[in-house]
From TrEMBL:
<keyword id="KW-0812">Transmembrane</keyword>
<dbReference type="Pfam" id="PF00560">
    <property type="entry name" value="LRR_1"/>
</dbReference>
<keyword id="KW-0732">Signal</keyword>
<dbReference type="InterPro" id="IPR053211">
    <property type="entry name" value="DNA_repair-toleration"/>
</dbReference>
<dbReference type="InterPro" id="IPR055414">
    <property type="entry name" value="LRR_R13L4/SHOC2-like"/>
</dbReference>
<dbReference type="Pfam" id="PF08263">
    <property type="entry name" value="LRRNT_2"/>
</dbReference>
<keyword id="KW-1133">Transmembrane helix</keyword>
<dbReference type="Pfam" id="PF23598">
    <property type="entry name" value="LRR_14"/>
</dbReference>
<feature type="domain" description="Leucine-rich repeat-containing N-terminal plant-type">
    <location>
        <begin position="32"/>
        <end position="70"/>
    </location>
</feature>
<keyword id="KW-0433">Leucine-rich repeat</keyword>
<keyword id="KW-0472">Membrane</keyword>
<dbReference type="InterPro" id="IPR032675">
    <property type="entry name" value="LRR_dom_sf"/>
</dbReference>
<feature type="signal peptide">
    <location>
        <begin position="1"/>
        <end position="24"/>
    </location>
</feature>
<dbReference type="InterPro" id="IPR003591">
    <property type="entry name" value="Leu-rich_rpt_typical-subtyp"/>
</dbReference>
<protein>
    <submittedName>
        <fullName>Probable leucine-rich repeat receptor-like protein kinase At5g63930</fullName>
    </submittedName>
</protein>
<keyword id="KW-0677">Repeat</keyword>
<dbReference type="InterPro" id="IPR013210">
    <property type="entry name" value="LRR_N_plant-typ"/>
</dbReference>
Amino acid sequence: MEKAYSNFFISSLLLLLHLYLLETVCIDAVHTDESALFALKASFTLNSSHPLTQNWSSQSSICDWIGVTCGSRHHRVTALNISNMSILGNIAPHLGNLSFLVSLDASQNNLHGDLPQDLSRLRRLKVMDFAFNNFSGEIPMWFGSNSSSISKLETLSVRNNSLQGNIPKEIGNLKNLKELILFGNQFTGTIPLSIFNMSSLEILGLSNNQLTGSLPVDICHRLHRIKSIGIISNHLSGHIPPGLSNCTELYELSLSYNSFNGTIPPEIVNLERLQFLNLGGNKLRGTIPANIGNLQKLQQVQLENNYMVGSIPHTISNLSSLWMLNLNTNSLSGIIPREIVNLHKLEILYLQINKWFHTGRALQYLYTNRGFSFLQ
Ligand SMILES: *[C@@H]1O[C@H](CO)[C@@H](O)[C@H](O)[C@H]1NC(C)=O
Ligand SMILES: *[C@@H]1O[C@H](CO)[C@@H](O)[C@H](O)[C@H]1NC(C)=O
Ligand SMILES: *[C@@H]1O[C@H](CO)[C@@H](O)[C@H](O)[C@H]1NC(C)=O
Ligand SMILES: *[C@@H]1O[C@H](CO)[C@@H](O)[C@H](O)[C@H]1NC(C)=O
Ligand SMILES: *[C@@H]1O[C@H](CO)[C@@H](O)[C@H](O)[C@H]1NC(C)=O
Ligand SMILES: *[C@@H]1O[C@H](CO)[C@@H](O)[C@H](O)[C@H]1NC(C)=O
Ligand SMILES: *[C@@H]1O[C@H](CO)[C@@H](O)[C@H](O)[C@H]1NC(C)=O
Ligand SMILES: *[C@@H]1O[C@H](CO)[C@@H](O)[C@H](O)[C@H]1NC(C)=O
Ligand SMILES: *[C@@H]1O[C@H](CO)[C@@H](O)[C@H](O)[C@H]1NC(C)=O
Ligand SMILES: *[C@@H]1O[C@H](CO)[C@@H](O)[C@H](O)[C@H]1NC(C)=O
Ligand SMILES: *[C@@H]1O[C@H](CO)[C@@H](O)[C@H](O)[C@H]1NC(C)=O
Ligand SMILES: *[C@@H]1O[C@H](CO)[C@@H](O)[C@H](O)[C@H]1NC(C)=O
């Protein structure tokens, strides 16, 4: 009896101790979040009238601060959105202490400096958006290295910054990545093969960089979910791989302004979801695929500034969603098919600097009735 009583006493005591510790740990953790945000604020240069200057203060709970979202139960910071707030400064490494952070959006500010390695400790992070800032240096290797914890990352955008150097192959280790947006930096070197190995990837945005090399022939071997490939204005060369036709989810293929040569692979007409086909400004030869009419969803076809020959296939009349057709500056010939008149969505048509036999009545009709310009 006495033993049972004392057991009860001890377990009650332990329970109280446990609750006390839990509480303390919890308060400490919330305090960690607060000091991380204060360190972040200190790394910004904010004038007295900036919204964060007054608002991010110990007067109120961090969960009430502008741009901060907390989890409802544990009151830890789960989202930080300081997008488009005219913030000048850099990112304090303490941001890596926000261990419950799921979403981080610091886009459209004037942030500069390096992306601190401490961000690799954010193991719950799914969204990291640093677009439209002025971060510099190389894209850190830690992004996908085995010492990094950000394996849940689904969206990574550093669009329009001043990053340079190679794209680290370690990025391919981010097994949950769906969107990789590296547009508008100064990345050089080849696209690491590991990127074409990411079975979760849906959007690959590499336009406006200085990347070299070619696309792998088996580009779609593992990119089963890829929906959009954008690599405009780089220095890629070689052929457009016929294997692209195995990326059945593709709605955008934008490879304009590179040095691709060879022909447009006819297999491309199997990409039934394709809406945007942009291959202008390359060194492409050969003809427009005869069965292009299969691509019922096409809205935009830009093949300008190449060395394409032959005539416009009559199947073009099937492209009822076509809004823009740009065939400027090629060596296309023959008669422009009159069916083009029936493409009711067509608003932009560029055909000049080719070798057309004659422009024909169809074009006269389009010209006068829809106000097209730039017809030869
Ligand atoms: C910060 O802004 C939020 C939302 O506008 C407001 O609820 C909160 O009271 C503000 N805190 C301080 C200390 O001004
Ligand atoms: C951040 O807030 C802006 C509006 O202020 C919104 O457009 C954007 O989607 C938000 N970012 C995230 C990741 O939710
Ligand atoms: C950014 O904020 C400005 C006003 O401060 C607003 O006019 C603009 O539309 C915002 N841009 C975006 C992309 O949200
Ligand atoms: C404070 O900074 C904001 C942008 O960060 C700017 O729009 C505003 O004019 C500045 N105010 C003063 C008083 O300098
Ligand atoms: C937060 O992170 C910084 C730098 O990453 C570190 O030096 C500091 O000890 C951390 N602070 C707390 C309270 O965990
Ligand atoms: C971006 O940073 C570079 C230095 O790293 C500087 O030369 C440039 O002026 C900055 N650009 C803007 C828009 O602030
Ligand atoms: C992590 O990667 C390094 C080199 O990239 C390698 O030497 C090391 O064995 C790896 N560690 C683990 C645990 O995989
Ligand atoms: C983004 O970068 C591209 C080229 O690198 C440039 O043309 C564009 O103006 C930039 N956009 C903004 C909003 O800075
Ligand atoms: C692609 O993934 C497979 C399986 O995960 C791996 O064995 C291979 O090394 C990877 N290749 C590249 C180039 O990353
Ligand atoms: C196409 O480009 C590749 C790589 O630049 C080159 O090796 C090849 O000779 C070119 N082929 C043609 C037909 O121009
Ligand atoms: C598409 O994938 C299949 C099966 O993996 C393969 O046999 C075929 O060669 C691929 N097509 C192209 C054009 O590469
Ligand atoms: C035109 O579209 C129909 C489906 O609407 C399709 O069955 C047919 O094969 C297409 N014709 C050509 C020539 O692409």
